[in-house]
Design brief:
single chain; alpha+beta; 3-stranded antiparallel sheet; two-stranded antiparallel sheet; 4 helices
Length: 138
């Protein structure tokens, strides 16, 4: 994770010469998957925001959305820094994402890395893309 809590970089170091588009496609797929996981509902519930409303399903990061701002502020970008370094940058641009991340037991992005979800998703998606590339399917 970078010093800036609204983004973190996940770096994958291998020799990708000639297969850059496959690697970027795999990282892009992992980015979509990780964002979807970060904002997915769990069985854990949070209390209503307003009187008369129902409980809200919490995400894996233990937050629940009221306006959708936090959930809709996730993004990702996959880049090749060199032939041997691919980077997936995940971000959340909501103003309060950093404050929420600093609360005990809550996370917006850091839990993806800490829980092993990021590494597993990247490895699975990039390996699938590289297998398709080697088989001539990409």
């Amino acid at each position: 994770m970078t010093d800036n809590l609204d983004t973190f970089l996940l770096e994958l170091e291998r020799d990708f010469a000639g297969a850059e588009s496959a690697v970027l496609g795999g990282l892009d797929a992992a980015g979509f998957e990780l964002v979807e996981f970060a904002r997915s509902p769990t069985e854990q519930m949070r209390p209503p925001v307003r009187k008369g409303e129902g409980n809200r399903a919490a995400t894996p990061g233990h937050w629940a959305t009221d306006t959708g701002l936090l959930a809709n502020s996730f993004g990702h970008e996959a880049t090749m820094e060199t032939d041997e370094l691919a980077v997936l940058e995940l971000s959340n641009t909501a103003e309060y994402a950093e404050a929420l991340e600093s609360l005990e037991d809550y996370w917006v992005l850091s839990g993806l890395e800490a829980g092993g979800h990021a590494q597993e998703s990247i490895e699975r998606n990039v390996n699938a893309a590289l297998d398709a590339y080697k088989a001539g399917d990409l």
